[in-house]
Amino acid sequence: MLDILDSGLKSLEIVQGFFILSHWAAPEEISERDRAWQILGFAWRMAIELRISLPLHNFAHVTYRNASEIGLEVINRKRQLTWNLLFCAELAMTVQTGCIDILRAPPIPDAASYSPTNLPLEYPNYNYAANVQVNSIFTRMIHLASDLRRERGSDKLRETFVAAWKPEMEAWKARWPNINPFVDIHAEGNVIILNLVSLRFAGGSAQPILAECKAAALRTLHKINSWQDPETELLYCSNYVVVHIAYAAVLLIQLEQRFQHGVSAEVKADVLRMAEILEVVGKNRSNAFSAATLHAQRIKRLVASLSPPPQPAAPLAEDTSLFWSGPPMPPTFPAPSLGSSCLPPPLPEHTSAAGFLDATPQELADVGPLAEFASSDASWSFPTEFNDYALPMMGLWGWPEPGWNEGGEAAHAG
C-alpha cells in the first residue's frame, strides 16, 4: 500500500481498493494502532486529491476529453457512489472502535427521497441503496442524541429520541423487505445501539428497551446460525459484520446474566454455534490472522468461563479475613470493572494466533462492559484511545458499564 502512495499512483479504482481493504483488514499493531483506520485514511486522502466529490467535465483531464456524454455520466455516478461509500466506511469504523462521537453526516439523500422502485442513479444496486439509507438514518439519530443531551431538566428526552428513530427504522424495514442478510445485520446492530443511546436520557424503566436489545441480539444470532441466503456467502463477511455478530452474542450473555441470573443452555448453544461459524470464517482467510478468529475464540472461552469446573477448597489459615483478598473469583457477566480491560498483547510478528487465546477468564470478562449511555456526562464522549491492539468491537472494551439499579431502572444525568 505504501508503495502505491510513494509511486504517486492515483485513480478511482485505487480508492475503491483501499475502501474494500479497510473492511477486511487483519487486526494487528501498526503506527496508528488500527490498520483499518489507516487504510481508510489512504482512501480518503486519494479521494480528496482526485476531487471525486465533484463532477467531471470533458476538459477535466486528458483521460476524459474523448469520452462521450453518456460515458462521463457513468464515470460521475461511480465517483459519487465511491465518495458516499467512504462515509459509510467511516461509520463502520466508528461503530467498530467505539468512537461514535466523531461520526460525520454523510452527503446522502434524504431517507424519503428514494425507494426500491425509484433508485437514484448513484445507487442502482438495491442493497447498496438500502444500506446507504439506513446509514443516513443512523447518523442523523446519533447527531440528534448529541443535541438532546444539551437540553437539561426535561423528563421527555428519551421519549423524544425514541419517537424520532424508531418510526424511521420501522419505515425503512418496511420499504426494503428484500435486503440481503449483511444489510439486515447492520440494521439490527443500529437498533441495538440506538436503544442503548436512548438510555442516556430520563424516561422510566430500562426494562422494555433492554428487552428490545435482547430481541435484536437473538435475531442476529439466529440469522447467522440459519444462514441460507443463496446470493451472499457468510465466509466473505466483512469485519463490520463480524463486530455486529460478536457484539450481539456478548450483549445477549450480559443481559441474561444481569436479569435472568444465569445464561440458559439454549442461549449458550446459540452463542457457541455462532462462534464456531466465525471460526470457519477465520479459517477461510489463511493468509492473515482474522478478526473473526479472534472474536470466535474469545467468545468460546467466555462461555466456558461462565461454568468453571469446581475447585478444591483451600485450607483456611488461622488469620483468615472475612474479606476475599486472593486471586479474582470466577467471573460473572458483566464484569465489575469500569476502566480499561487487561487484554492479551498483540501478536508478535511471525507468531501463532494462539497467543491471543492465553487470556484468563477474568481478562475475558473484562472485555464485555455494556456501553454506558445512562450515566455521567464524561461517559458520553466515547474514548478514542483503544485498549487493545486487535480490532475493537463496538465498545466491548473501553466503554464503562451502565448504572442500572436492581429494579432495572437506568441511572441518568439530567
Describe the structure.
With 414 residues, the chain is mainly alpha-helical. It has a domain of 96 residues. The chain is 49% helix and 0% strand. It contains twelve helices and no strands. Helix 8 crosses helix 10 and helix 10 runs antiparallel to helix 11. The longest helix has 28 residues. The protein is globular. Its main location: nucleus.
Radius of gyration: 23 Å
Estimate the helix proportion, in percent: 40-55%
E-strand count = 0
Proportion of strand residues? under 5%
Largest sheet: none
Low-pLDDT parts are: 318-414
Q: What shape does the CA trace take?
A: globular
N- and C-termini, Cα separation: 48 Å
Mean pLDDT: 72
Write the H/E string, N to C: HHHHHHHHHHHH
Number of H/I helices: 12
Instruction: Please identify the structural class as seen in this structure.
Output: mainly alpha
Main location: nucleus
Keywords: DNA-binding, Nucleus, Transcription, Transcription regulation
Organism: Rhodotorula toruloides
GO molecular function, one term: DNA-binding transcription factor activity, RNA polymerase II-specific
